[in-house]
Amino acid sequence: MPDQLLDNPNPAETREERDAELNAAAPKVASAGTAGAVPVPHPAARSAAAEAERRLLLRLQASAVLILAAAAVLSLVYFAKLILVVVLISILMSFVLAPVVEFLIGFGIPRGLCALIAVSMLVALLSGATYFSYNRAMDFIHELPKYTAKIHQLMAPVREQAEQIEKTTETVLPSSAEDQKTVTVKQSSSWTDFVSKNANTVSEIVLALTFIPFLVFFMLSWKDHVRSATLMLFRMENRNSAYVMLGLVAGMIRSFIIGNFIIGAFLSACSIAVFGLIGLPYFYFLGIISGFVSLIPYLGVILAILPPLVADLGHLTTAKVLVIVGSVLGLHLIAMNVLYPQILGKRLQLNPLAVTLALLFWGWLWGAMGLILAVPITGAVKIICDNIERLRPYGAWLGE
Q1: What is the distance between the alpha carbons of residues 307 and 287, in angstroms, rounded to a whole number?
Q2: Which of 33, 63, 175, 355 is a good FRET partner for 52, with 20 to 30 A between their CA atoms?
Q3: What is residue 145's DSSP assignment?
Q4: Distance (Å, rounded) from C-alpha 387 to C-alpha 389?
Q5: Per residue in 199-237, pLDDT tens?
Q6: H or E element: which one contains 55?
Q7: Buried (b) or exposed (e) across 161-180, using 16+ Cβ within 10 A?
Q8: Is the pLDDT score of 117 beyond 50?
Q9: DSSP letter string over 211-273?
């Protein structure tokens, strides 16, 4: 008993109170220590530092996972471009044919049969256009030898200038004696060699294109099932937002297709009138090609000028060239700066910088088809970002 009193002079003091006093006195002892003493951090400070380190590690891990996921998606988009392009073209075609299917359903025809009729009409229309284009192209090829002298006459100044540049280059940079003694052998190649070398790639493209009618048919006939099954992929609390988002994307794609068709029809009608007035052969056919090709961003205006120039090589004059170039360029500027913003700008709500970057990116990935599909893909990405809270800043950056 005396030993206990010596150890604890105040019996009323409890163990909890002593622990509290020791914890309160710990910072004071550490601050009042000698110069050579190592300060002991507070337990709360140690736990806060560990928590901050843990959060930093988690943030680095999340960033690494995000970078790897982006690289994986980019690789998939690049290497699977043929499949993705076919699927996206099928989606666009299904939106084009959806009004036809809904119209036929109003007469009591089953949806499957309506989809079959709509796809058959599309295949027949494309086959007819291909057959007509093939005949016009063969007629032009048969008449092309008549224009050989005219082509040589047009290309003579260019050839003379190229020869002059070559002579100037040889004068500035004379070839060595060894180069003069070297005999260069050039192997001639023909279109048959090109086809045989690329037969595998051509067959893959043709095989992939044959899937488009079947994909369009199933997208039209199973439209309700696909939508409901897609909504079931989301959690219950997110299905309403997903339903609204899918509706907005569908409306955007539908407006994009209809708007481009209206603008293309207007450009085609104006081109047919201008080409007919100046007496171009097959002016109705060339006007349609030039009008719709002009809708391709950036490259469209150049591609729209080539068909009428090539078709009238034998009778081209300076006045005709100026009229063709001026009319195509003027119509393209009117379409891109007046019609396009009025018809499609309100629905897409994309700023010019985002559209330009999208065209650059998708054109690099998918070539010409990337330029055509870049705008609807970017519009769909913006709608998705606008409807997801964490991605809304990105949607605002893409918007106007």
Answers
A1: 9
A2: 33
A3: G
A4: 6
A5: 567 777 788 888 889 999 999 988 888 888 888 888 888
A6: helix 43-79
A7: eeeeeeeeeeeeeeeeeeee
A8: yes
A9: HHHHHHHHHHHTHHHHHHHHHTTS-GGGHHHHHHHHHHHHHHHHHHHHHHHHHHHHHHHHHHH
Please answer whether residues 379 and 350 qualify as being in contact, where contact means their C-beta atoms are separated by less than 8 angstroms: yes
> Are 263 and 295 spatial neighbours (Cβ–Cβ below 8 Å)?
yes
Specify whether the CB–CB gap between 293 and 266 falls below 8 A: no
- Six-digit token pair at 380? 């769909």
Angle at 210 between CA 208 and CA 212, to 5 degrees: 85
Say if CB 91 and CB 219 are below 8 A apart.
yes
Is residue 284 pLDDT above 70, yes or no?
yes
Residue 38 contacts by C-beta under 8 Å, 6 or more apart in sequence? none
Q: How far apart are CA 303 and CA 288, in angstroms?
A: 13
Count of beta carbons in the 10 Å neighbourhood of residue 365: 16
Q: What is the DSSP letter of 337?
A: I
Distances (CA, A) of 305 to 14, 172, 295, 339: 97, 38, 12, 20
The CA–CA distances, whole Å, from 174 to 165, 167, 180 equal: 14, 10, 10
Instruction: List b or e across 334-360, with b for residues whose CB sees 16 or more CB atoms inside 10 angstroms.
Output: ebbeebbeebbeebbbbeeebbeebbe
pLDDT tens for each residue of 12-41: 445 555 555 545 544 444 444 444 444 555
DSSP character for 390?
G
Q: Is 393 helix (H, G, I), strand (E, B) or coil?
A: helix
Which tokens belong to 274?
């201008």
Rounded to whole angstroms, the Cα distance separating 122 from 98 reads 12
0.85 exceeded by the pTM?
no
Handedness of CA 81, 84, 86, 88 (dihedral sign): negative
Give the length of the chain: 400
The residue behind tokens 């970017």 is 378
Burial class (CB in 10 A: 0-12, 13-18, 19+), 395: middle
Q: How far apart are CA 286 and CA 132, in angstroms?
A: 12
The alpha carbon of 215 is separated from its chain's Cα centroid by a whole number of angstroms, namely 21
